[in-house]
C-alpha cells in the first residue's frame, strides 16, 4: 500500500526560556493509505508536536512532510489552507463553541471551505447521521454528554471529506464504555469511508484495539515502530517492553517466592495460541529439567493473540551438571518463542512503577477481549492447563 503521509527525518525545535528544546528529533514515519496509525509514549515525548507537523500546525525545523507524494513542508497561504481542509483534527477536549448549536459548530467548517449556504444543512444532517446524532442538530454543546460532544467534533472534522483524520487523545476524556463507542465509530469511518487515521493515545487498550501500525516515542525520538502485533509482541526497546510488561506481563506475588523450588524464572512471550504446551513438555523431556508454569496471560490484538507465561526451570539433578542443563533448556525455550527474558521479583516491581505514567488509567480491556489466567500459587501441572485452556 502506498504512503499517504511520509514524515522524512522531521525535527522540531522550540525555544523555551532562551534555550532550544528539541520536541521531535529526526523522526521518520510512513503512514499507509487507509490504515489506523498510532503513536504512544510518555507525556512530553513529542507525540502531539509530531502529529501537528502533518497539517503544518507545527512547521518542522528540518526534514520534510510529504502528503500523497507531494512535499508540502513549505506550503503557505491558500495552498496551505487547502491542504488543511483535507485533514480533519479531533482533540481530547472536543473544542466545540459553546454558545452556538451543533449545526452551527459544523457549519463553521463548511463555511471555511466555501461550501454554499444552501448546501450546508443537508451536509450537516448527513454528517450527524453518520455519527448517530441526527436528533441533536439544534442542541447546544452544554446539553450533550462527553461522548456526544466527541461525535460532533468527529462530524465537524469530516465535514469537508478529508482523506486524513488526526486524533490527539480523542478518547482520553471519556469513560471506558464511551471510549468503546467512539473507537467503533472511528473504525467504521476508517473502513467505510477509507479515511486514514493517525491517533495519539496513552491508553494501551485503545492502541491494541485499533492500531494497524504503531510508533513508540521517547524524548522526541521514535524508538520503535511496526505492526502493532509485532511491536507489542516482540518489543525491542526498553520503553516498549515496559509498556507491554505492565499490561500483558505478569508479576509473581512476593509471598509466593519463599515457596518456590529453586530454579530460574523465565518469562516467555509468544504470538498466537497453541504453541506452548508441546514446547514446554518437549523441552522438559529432552533436557531433563522441570518446567513449572507459575503465571500466564493472553492479550488479543484484533483476532491475534499474544501470550505470556512465567515458568520456573529447575534441574532434576544437583550441581554443575544441573546448572548446565537448565541453561541449555532456557536457551532452547528462548529460541522457540517471540521474546523471552529472565525475571526477578524486584524487576517486576520496578517495571510496574515505571510505566504507570504512560498508561495510567487502563485497568480493564476496552475491547473486552482480554483474558487473564492468574495461576500464581498453583505452580504445577494444573496451572499449565488453565493457562493454555
Ligand atoms: N510551543 C512550545 N514551546 C516550547 N516547548 C514546547 C512547545 N510545545 C511543546 N513543547 C515541548 O516539547 C516537548 C514535547 O511536547 P508534546 O506536547 O509534543 O509531547 P506529548 O508527547 O504530546 O505530551 P503530552 O502527552 O503530555 O501532550 C515537551 O517537552 C514540551 O514541553
Automatic annotation (TrEMBL):
Protein known as: ABC transporter ATP-binding protein
Organism: Bifidobacterium italicum
Keywords of the record: Amino-acid transport, ATP-binding, Cell membrane, Membrane, Nucleotide-binding, Translocase, Transport
Annotated region (Disordered), positions in chain: 370-389
Stretches assigned to the ABC transporter domain: 5-244
One record GO biological process: amino acid transport
Any Pfam family hit: ABC_tran
GO molecular function, one term: ATP binding
Skewed-composition ranges (Low complexity): 370-380
SUPFAM superfamilies: ACT-like, P-loop containing nucleoside triphosphate hydrolases
PROSITE patterns given in the database record: ABC_TRANSPORTER_1, ABC_TRANSPORTER_2
Amino acid at each position: 500500500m502506498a504512503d499517504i503521509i511520509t514524515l522524512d527525518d522531521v525535527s522540531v525545535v522550540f525555544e523555551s526560556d532562551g534555550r532550544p528544546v528539541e520536541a521531535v528529533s529526526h523522526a521518520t514515519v510512513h503512514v499507509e493509505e487507509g490504515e489506523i496509525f498510532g503513536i504512544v509514549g510518555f507525556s512530553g515525548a513529542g507525540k502531539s508536536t509530531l502529529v501537528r507537523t502533518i497539517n503544518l500546525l507545527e512547521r518542522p525545523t528540518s526534514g520534510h512532510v510529504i502528503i500523497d507524494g507531494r512535499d508540502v513542508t513549505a506550503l503557505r497561504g491558500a495552498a496551505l489552507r487547502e491542504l488543511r481542509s483535507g485533514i480533519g483534527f479531533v482533540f481530547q477536549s472536543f473544542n466545540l463553541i459553546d454558545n452556538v448549536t451543533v449545526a452551527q459548530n459544523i457549519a463553521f467548517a463548511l463555511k471555511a471551505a466555501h461550501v454554499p449556504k444552501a448546501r450546508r444543512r443537508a451536509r450537516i444532517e448527513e454528517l450527524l447521521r453518520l455519527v448517530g446524532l441526527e436528533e441533536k442538530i439544534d442542541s447546544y454543546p452544554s446539553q450533550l454528554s462527553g461522548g456526544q460532544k466527541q461525535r460532533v467534533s468527529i462530524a465537524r472534522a469530516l465535514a469537508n471529506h478529508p482523506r486524513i483524520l488526526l486524533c490527539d487523545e480523542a478518547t482520553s476524556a471519556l469513560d471506558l464504555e464511551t471510549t468503546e463507542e467512539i473507537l467503533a465509530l472511528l473504525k467504521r469511518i476508517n473502513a467505510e469511508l477509507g479515511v486514514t487515521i493517525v491517533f495519539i493515545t496513552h491508553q494501551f487498550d485503545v492502541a491494541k484495539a485499533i492500531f494497524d501500525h504503531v510508533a513508540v516515542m521517547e524524548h522526541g525520538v521514535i524508538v520503535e515502530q511496526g505492526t502493532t502485533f509485532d511491536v507489542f509482541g516482540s518489543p525491542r526497546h526498553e520503553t516498549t517492553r515496559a509498556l507491554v510488561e505492565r499490561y500483558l506481563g505478569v508479576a509473581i506475588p512476593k509471598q509466593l517466592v519463599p515457596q518456590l523450588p529453586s530454579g530460574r524464572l523465565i518469562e516467555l512471550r509468544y504470538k498466537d495460541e497453541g504453541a506452548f504446551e508441546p514446547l514446554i513438555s518437549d523441552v522438559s523431556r529432552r533436557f531433563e529439567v522441570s518446567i513449572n508454569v507459575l503465571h500466564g496471560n493472553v492479550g488479543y490484538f484484533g483476532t491475534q493473540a499474544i501470550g505470556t507465561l512465567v515458568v520456573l526451570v529447575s534441574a532434576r539433578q544437583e550441581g554443575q551438571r544441573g546448572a548446565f542443563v537448565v541453561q541449555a533448556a532456557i536457551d532452547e525455550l528462548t529460541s522457540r518463542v517471540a521474546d523471552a527474558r529472565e525475571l526477578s521479583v524486584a524487576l517486576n516491581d520496578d517495571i510496574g512503577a515505571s510505566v504507570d505514567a504512560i498508561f495510567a488509567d487502563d485497568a480493564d480491556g476496552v475491547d473486552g477481549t482480554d483474558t487473564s489466567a492468574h495461576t500464581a500459587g498453583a505452580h504445577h501441572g494444573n496451572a499449565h492447563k488453565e493457562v493454555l485452556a
